[in-house]
Design brief:
By secondary structure, the protein is an alpha/beta fold. The protein folds into two domains: 30-134 and 216-342, Glycoside hydrolase/deacetylase (TIM Barrel, Alpha-Beta Barrel); 139-202, no CATH class. Helix content is 41%, strand content 14%. The chain contains eleven helices and twelve strands. The strands form three sheets. Strands 1, 4, 5, 6, 9, 10, 11 and 12 form an eight-stranded parallel β-sheet that branches. A two-stranded parallel ribbon has the order 2-3. Helix 5 runs antiparallel to helix 6, helix 5 runs parallel beside helix 7 (189-202) and helix 9 packs parallel to helix 10 (282-291). The radius of gyration is 20 Å and the shape is globular.
């Protein structure tokens, strides 16, 4: 790491620590914002969970510490609370925050939901219908697994069908992994499945083994959590990107996905989160309106109060990081436009 990068990191950490200490005693300045946090996975990591992409995973201990901080310094609310506020039916509490999870991983049922219930904190889980009970292996986790295990120093992008050039691995293993994931997000599912296989072959890693336990939730597990108050939203019927869909696919992803989820759970679904945090095109937006969603989460970013568009809610991705940095992130002090595929 270069001297300038080290210095920048040290300054950032010092600034976050100063904010955190001031915030602990109520002296940190607050702006009128609504942070909506985007989590994906809470687990210890490793092969038992097929969890290798470090951008997506938070450890149970870190998650518990983050929840304790949020409960002390913010007021966690649900999207239903937000809808009631905008309709003028109830006031918005001081320092509101919304906690969301994407995709419907089973470790939410195992680790996150028990902590949320014990601490009395509401959250919204956005699920992909086709993932539930079908147990696909997440392609992004397979890519991350390949880069963790490979001993090859570089990758020819041409060999995996991702363009030209040589991608160095070595000390930039995480950066190389994320570059490949970002590139694969932009291609079709069939091309991506083929590229993942080529990647494993080129880098000398076997992907034959299945995870020892399911990666995604079952319908029964989801229904069990919904029955005790979990707010469930839709993340698409098959996780298709909504910036490139036509009328038929938009209806399948949104309208049919909503109807199926509501039938399975026996309750109304009011919130939708766009896959990969990519904004919907006009066709998808029309389908969202026709389907009756009250809230749509779109791109990464901050939400200012009181001017809030419930069809353009921005979220902040959450990482495994020290609590002072997390506190500054929630306050909006560290936000920067991210590549959309940092959230799947």
């Amino acid at each position: 790491m270069r001297i300038a990068e080290v210095a920048t990191r040290m300054v950032k950490e010092a600034a976050c620590q100063a904010f955190y200490q001031a915030d602990r005693v109520g002296l940190a300045p607050r702006r009128r914002r609504l942070p909506v946090l985007c989590y994906h996975r809470v687990n210890p990591g490793g092969p038992d969970y097929l969890s290798y992409d470090q951008r997506l995973r938070v450890s149970p201990a870190t998650f518990e510490a983050q929840l304790a901080y949020l409960k002390k310094r913010y007021t966690p609310i649900s999207f239903a609370d937000l809808v009631r506020w905008q309709r003028g039916e109830s006031p918005l509490p001081r320092n509101p925050v919304v906690i969301t999870f994407d995709d419907g991983y089973r470790d939410f049922f195992q680790h996150a939901h028990p902590l949320l219930r014990r601490m009395g904190i509401p959250a919204t889980l956005f699920v992909v219908n086709s993932y539930i009970d079908s147990q696909p292996k997440p392609w992004w986790e397979e890519v991350a697994l390949v880069f963790e295990k490979t001993r090859e120093p570089a990758l020819s992008l041409k060999d995996v069908g991702l363009g030209q050039g040589i991608l160095a691995i070595g000390d930039s293993r995480a950066a190389a992994c994320h570059a490949v994931i970002n590139a694969m997000t932009a291609i079709s599912q069939d091309a991506r499945d083929e590229a993942v296989g080529r990647l494993a072959t080129c880098l000398g890693v076997s992907l034959d083994a299945s995870p020892p336990q399911p990666v995604f939730l079952s319908w029964q597990e989801l229904a069990t959590m919904a029955e005790v108050g979990l707010e469930v939203g839709l993340h698409g019927r098959s996780h298709a990107l909504l910036d490139r869909v036509g009328p038929l696919q938009a209806e399948a992803e949104i309208g049919q996905g909503k109807a199926e989820l509501e039938e399975r759970l026996g309750r109304k679904v009011v919130a939708f989160a766009c896959p990969v945090q990519v904004a919907p095109n006009a066709t998808a937006r029309d389908s969202l309106h026709r389907s009756g969603f009250a809230v749509v989460c779109t791109t990464p970013g901050l939400n200012r109060l009181p001017s809030l568009d419930l069809y353009d809610i921005h979220r902040l991705l959450v990482y495994e990081e020290p609590l002072p940095i997390f506190a500054a992130r929630v306050a909006g002090l560290l936000f920067r436009p991210t590549h959309p595929t940092e959230g799947y």
